[in-house]
Amino acid sequence: MAGSRSSLRGGVRRGLAGIAVPPAVKLSRQADARAAAGDAAGAEPLYAQALAADPTLAGTHNNRGNALRALGRLDEAAAAYRAAVLHGLHEGMAHYNLGSVLRQAERQDEAEAAFRQALALRPDHAEAWNNCGNLLRDLGRFGGAAVDYRRALALRPDWADAHDNLGAVLYLLHEQGGEEDAAALARLWRRDHPDNPLARHIGAAIAGEEADPRAPDDYVRQTFDLFADEFDRKLAELDYRAPALLAGLLSDEEPAGDLDVLDAGCGTGLCAEALRPYARRLVGVDLSDGMLNRARARGLYDGLHEAELVGFLATHRLAFDLVMAADVFCYFGVLDDALAAACAALRPGGRLAFTVEALDPADGRPHRVATHGRYAHAEAYIRTAVANAGLMLRRCDRDRLRFESGEPVTGLVVLAGRPAG
Ligand SMILES: C[S@@+](CC[C@H](N)C(=O)[O-])C[C@H]1O[C@@H](n2cnc3c(N)ncnc32)[C@H](O)[C@@H]1O
């Protein structure tokens, strides 16, 4: 991130009749022009010349710091910002610039002191609170980081990055033994930002408060739009197997290529290759435009729709012979509406194949949202919900869906059918 610039304080204004612009100021202005054009390498020696002629130009020290930082000369940049402060630029901006470059140089203690100084001078600087939070997060001080992110959000309530940062750090705090502190902070997050999808969903999960029956649409959209570019690579790293396991359920039958198939929550289209041989027509539906763009690039779908899948299914009665939902119902707690809509969208004899993450029966609940925002389901609940939706359970296997933090994630791999006739 570029440092904040300073104009020449107390400098001589151009155009004031009879007053000459000192050479140091002229040089500094030439340097500013170069820097503004993105030429840090050209600007820096001009700043140095200006400061050799007049070392008291505080703003020039600051702007030279920016140029040095852009050139990756971090320690020299830090020295330049300190010189700016020494020569009177005792403003939040100079301390903030100093904190940012010290953080980049991994001089964390000095960086924190500089950020705190910046915030003492300018407590309304949301970016400084956020960056201070990032610094504490990197140092493993998750509770302190959360407090700083909350300050940033008090100033900029709609700042998606700061919400993202706060959610991530509360998750870490919770995972690393700070459950109570994380829950208390999550409750405050939800209270202060009731309309923010991340605060609502992840906040509830971490606070241990009642979650929505399924993840809010705007949470899903935002999460996967951000994740889309990395999704395939990350999932391959985690040895993601849901599409292959579901394809395995279908493999007892030779694909005739005559089915109308829906890939529900198709994401980037990882199921498309397995589904294509069965399909006369292969359609995908997903909430995330970013994921759909990736799916489109595969060139395997006959149609792709940006829509919520329960609503989509409900408006496509008797339209499909096969519906697949790989790793999608983990964004649902209550499955009744989704399964009933899937049943209604299937033709008699049609099949629904899906995975969920398995909830330990010892938990005692039908489903539970975890602090990372996904739900897990008890096998007994799945069996009942499938039956209640009017579907017949054909298979409900336990298998490894993928790894997470090095641990296997066990799932239920389910095949159900709409009774024929
Ligand atoms: C973990 S990804 C799985 C994608 C794909 N099925 C696969 O196996 O690679 C979950 C996908 O479900 C989508 N999704 C979650 N809830 C949804 C809903 N209610 N309606 C439509 N799409 C949804 C997300 O946008 C995301 O693309």
UniProtKB/TrEMBL annotation:
Transmembrane segments: none
PROSITE patterns: TPR
Chain ranges of the Methyltransferase type domain: 262-352
Superkingdom classification of source: Bacteria
Swiss-Prot/TrEMBL keywords: TPR repeat
Database matches in InterPro entries: Methyltransf_12 (IPR013217), SAM-dependent_MTases_sf (IPR029063), TMTC_O-mannosyl-trnsfr (IPR052943), TPR-like_helical_dom_sf (IPR011990), TPR_rpt (IPR019734)
Each TPR repeat, start to end: 92-125, 126-159
Identification of the protein by name: Methyltransferase type 12 domain-containing protein
Source species of the chain: Azospirillum palustre
